[in-house]
Fold each of these.
Amino acid sequence: MSLQFLADGLFAGALIGLGAVGLTLTYSILRFSNFTHGDFISWGAYLTLGVVGALTGWLGPAARFMPFSFGWPLIVGGLLAMALTGLLALLLDVALFKPLRRTGHGIVMVIASFGASLALRAMLEFLFTSEPAYFSRAIQIAIPIGLGIRVTPDQAAMMGLALVVVIAMHFLLTRTHIGRSMRAVSENPALARVVGIDVAAVIRATWLIGGALACVSGIMLGLTVQIRPQMGFDLLLPLFAAAILGGIGSVWGAIIGGLIVGIAEAGAVQLIGSEYRSAVAFVLLIAMLLVRPRGLFGVREG
Amino acid sequence: MTAEVALVAREIEAGYEPGLPIVKGASITVGRGEIVVLLGPNGAGKSTLMKAIAGLVPISRGAVRLGDVDITRTAAHRMVRLGLAFVPQTENVFTTMSVEENLVLAGHVAPPAARTQRLAAMFELFPDLARQRGLAAGRLSGGQRQMLAVARALMIEPEVLMLDEPSAGLSPRLVGEVFAKLVEIRAGGVTILMVEQNARAALAIADRAYILADGRNRHEGAAVALAADPDIAAHYLGLGGADAGLGGRAAP
């Protein structure tokens, strides 16, 4: 059998993992399942597309970085879109979640996020139609890297990007005050206040970072597959599976959970057929909740 | 007793839900450099009063002053910058973080140049913690965890240190160690206000005490006088009797 599924799974897993990092952070700090997180991924991809379009419209088309399909506009546009997606998440919090947080009912926030998710998706369909869009129509030749595995240059670049982002997140959470504050609020919000942490500021940082990471997932998916208004929502189940598999609140857990989900899905496609692909995340999720509800790297409550 | 006042709470009414106060008009005054202890039966409102002063429970009536600053409506996270540190009774360290991370996190309010020096000072005051600096705080023993919670509070070099039952869950030997540390900390110029169930041991190191009941002041006075009062002893100090022997070791 071909080992290609490993490469495909690792790539899908890295993408799912990055999305799940944002989800696990918002889940542990704000204490609700945010269904709009998938739509942040879609919005991240479309915002990047929009900024890249504006940049090339303004400055003219730019040369590609051979052998990749993209040039500097995607890099600059991606960075700007990460900030914009973070701001979108922050805006949604100020307009919707913050007023609801005061009611103290977690389930109200979950349902509200479901509504916001529908609205965000409908807005994308209205603005861009549901026809798929592409960052580039350049054809990528997959390069053999041994053991019968082939990867495109774009996939390799995006894997490198994912690695850089995860390492940056690790240092943010372990070496900076805002990162330690995020971990503190996630473990014990009342004690965090006692030690002088402004919880409202931590919540703002969490949305900005979660949105920016979702945007990176959107770029990875958009560059290697296509951009559709549904793209992020379709990822929601794998995202939750990865976050719960890894243990809520754990960044490395979310990444490893993402890789497990990605490789399992790709393996299932090869072994039992693509029609069972989406069942894989469900099965993993249910198995984990039955065997070890706190996840691989989660902390026991209490 | 010193003339200068470090902390005053006047006729405080506070509770978790509007219209249902747990503290119903209690007043306390803590002089600079004093150790003052709040005693009283379960449900007297001692912990709630502490949390209200710390900004964690809303105050519906009354006023709190820290030195010359009115802190009645100050948000909890601003208290450390004003010099008020609080050690809650339970869940008072971040268990998933290392000992050192707990201290560094709390020390963030200090000017950058002073942070390393304060960390070193804490490790000198608590040598046990220095040996376990890399260990997750959740894996510390009960006594070490309590020491870490106190060290964490001291990282801000507070004017006033408030502790909610620092002896809870500790063996008599550890209670003695924690209280001896508190005496040492007071000697360093920190004013201490604490709630205690372990009344006799607490009175042995305290200058003054307040006894609360049903959210109001019931008795107050010098610690020595309250400890010697047979009426008070019969009503409020009964549970602490087993630990009475600690007094000699922990007293200043």
Amino acid sequence: MPDLLLELFSEEIPARMQAKAADDLRRMVTDKLVAEGLVYEGAKAFATPRRLALTVHGIPARQPDLKTERRGPKMGAPDAAVQGFLKATGLQSLDEAKIQRDPKGDFYIALIEKPGRAAIDVLAEILPVIIRTFPWPKSMRWGARSGKPGSLNWVRPLHAITATFGIETEEPDVVKFAVDGIESGQTTYGHRFLAPGAINVRRFEDYDAKLLAAKVVLDPERRKDAILTDAKQLAFAQGFDLVEDQNLLDEVAGLVEWPVVLMGSFEPEFLATPAEVIRATIRNNQKCFVVSDPKSNRGKLANRFILVANIEATDGGKTIIAGNERVIRARLSDAKFFYETDLKTKLEDRLPKFEQIVFHEKLGTQAARIKRIERLAAEIAPLVGADVAKVKRAAHLAKADLLTEVVGEFPEVQGLMGKYYALAQGEDESVAAACEEHYKPQGPADRVPTDPVSVAVALADKIDTLVGFWAIDEKPTGSKDPYALRRAALGVIRLIAENALRLSLVRVAASALAGLSVKPADAQKLPSDLLAFFADRLKVQLREQGARHDLVDAVFALGGQDDLLMIVRRVDALGKFLETDDGKNLLAGIKRASNILGIEEKKDKRNFEGAPEPALYGLDEEKSLAKAIGEVTAEASAAVAKEDFAAAMTAMAKLRPPVDAFFEKVRVNDDDPKVRENRLKLLGEIRSATRAVADFSKIQD
Amino acid sequence: MDASLPAHMRPERSFQGFILALQRFWAEQGCVILQPYDMEMGAGTFHPATTLRALGPKPWNAAYVQPSRRPKDGRYGENPNRMQHYYQFQVIMKPSPPNLQELYLKSLAAIGIDSAVHDIRFVEDDWESPTLGAWGLGWECWCDGMEVSQFTYFQQVAGFECAPVAGELTYGLERLAMYVQGVDRVYDLNFNGRDGDAKVTYGDVFLQAEKEYSKHNFEVADTAMLFEQFKMAEAACKKYLDAGWREGNRKEHLMALPAYDQCIKASHVFNLLDARGVISVTERQSYILRVRELAKACGEAWIHTEAGGAA
């Protein structure tokens, strides 16, 4: 079956848009083919800075024929109706129509056969539409045609379209169409500098090979592999290690068609500037990699960088390296200057400026926010075993680095610079660490701080954010979470769980709320509302870890649970218990009891609550169940009181044999209504006994 | 590069030779070579030959040097490459020719940048001027990791769609010349290409000015006067715009250019006030909006003039 080759050759496509564009092109073309009844075998798309390319192979040469029937007028209908029918169906006369009988009479039926069209014609129709409606994040007009309405929008000027269709053994046909004056053909161009000439292509195989000969590596994955391999080797040859950076690699691979990896150096004096600043300078501004020196302790940076050029220079790259070194030297001088300037001002002396900076229109200035965090952090400090004075100091200084030159230039080193500047002005180590760590954890993979000072400020920072945005009703909705509140909540959960902290979230949230200048209408409800949000985040986190998130509901259903650590531990113990046979069977027994109770309560329109009457126990199984419930309740409650949830579960396990025996031997709906009622009450007791650890009815099977 | 040039005129030897080489190259592409506009402005884009001529259907190809005044960027002559006054070389071609990228690369070759040894790249950079109500898509052009030009396809100017689209190139002249001459400090650029006693450097020409203007811009510029000048320029701009409609019919405008001068004036006065630090963050936005309103109104007037209108 024939294959399609499509290439859209343009001026430089932004690196960040290339991967999605290739994917969109593949999806749009193949979706359209399938919708047209052309089921293909495979498709693959590629992008370079100057082209999007797509190969679809195994497309049927023709669409399948379509047969449809169309019902016309009744026999003997007025002539106008008959003429209309003939016209619409293309029949010459009624003789060509079939007659079909149904309860309403005899009707004319036209059989219409629509022969499938040649795939190449279908392609000629769908490709221009796809090009015209391509979903670029930003697109533009250009050239003389842009003066007229309806001109093409593309990411940058589009210069050529290659579109061929055919089977391997034959010369393929050009899929003929034109978009905004650009005629499809089979001519593309090589590397802008190394092989700019026109190339005639037939199909994907020779296209890919001819491009390679014309110094264009079509597949971005191949370019990335080549860059990574060469960069590692180049670093290794000089006794260094490449500092790998996936995002940078993705970007750099989108800036070159023919990657040539080169190494440059800078003056070792610059290494006195923090490594993160050097890396940010070299990476963000110059899109170059840094290398580390394995011989130094802690693998410090070496005074080298790795750049990826787009040409094989005739001087072997000497000029390119020298040019990049010049720029990097100038950039590093700037960074060094920023860093040294920053060191001249104490962090606290920067704080007055925060009075002028609005954090959020409704939540006041940054200065007000820092004051709130200070107060809240001081309150949290004793709960997490932190020194109150240090916590206050840390909260006071933690945001100050936002106003430094280095952070202004490289926002990603916020916090870290705060730590450096705090240490430089002789702050306590924990205070300095908190300047960095109070932003942590930033995501599910980020490290959770353990120093109590960091923990207190981190919690205060996040809880102030959450309560603040809750108070002004800026909660996350669907995919929108502009203030990263989900991440903040998950951060709080991890800080508490991983540091085994005991604190009442409701109380801390209420305190944070009291510190706000805005007073929401439903202030009473806010802390519990926020707690439900935490429960949701906890569920999401458990689900992502592959744990049972329904257990969170089973624990929250007990009510009054706002100690996250206890919730996490209960969920954990419950999860382990439910993995055992005892756990599974007990859960089944409890569910059965709940079901029976539910049905009977509905039938009788009453509850069967309250203690059963021992005198009415007629069978041994009833007695032993009642006895077991009593023992287990006492044992589990004692274990829960000691916060030993595993022991509480072990106690629960003892219920399993008597529950199983009860259901095996005892008929609940006894003929004697008194006995029946008593037995239902006994079932109710099972349910309440297990509520010592969780509401089992909320657990999914 | 033209091998017949005397040594002191070669672009890699002299700053003026460098500018002349660019002018000559673009003249050969059919551009009119204009002289700098006789008003203070923050960028070559403000020149009416770009801002206004980018609007309307008539073809327009021009190139010129424009001194750019950025009061806030002054460093008292102490920074090796940051100045409150520097030169931009501006090219505007409407409609953008299909080979504008190739022309740009050839212009680099004309000033001594050979693409066989230099790594030249087009890196995404979308351009937007809030004060001009203008935006476009394009790139910053890199040479061996250094940004040397801005390349933009104008999509909108003064709030109006560009139809057809103009292509705009802006070269940072000092930076490029420093690279070509191989100097690290702008003031060390050889201005006239001569040696020994006859040599004049960029510092000889501009260092004193940088020191004086930095003091003026940051410390002394008369803010009361400037606030007044802003208001006057704004009022004058509006007045000329109103008065410019032929017989008040809003079909034909006769004074778009004088009105636009006042817009340029207001913009520069705002930049000076900003450098003096007397405009707060919130006020800043409103000043930018006021200049933009003037620019838009001037654009509206322009498209009703002979050069800016249809036919």
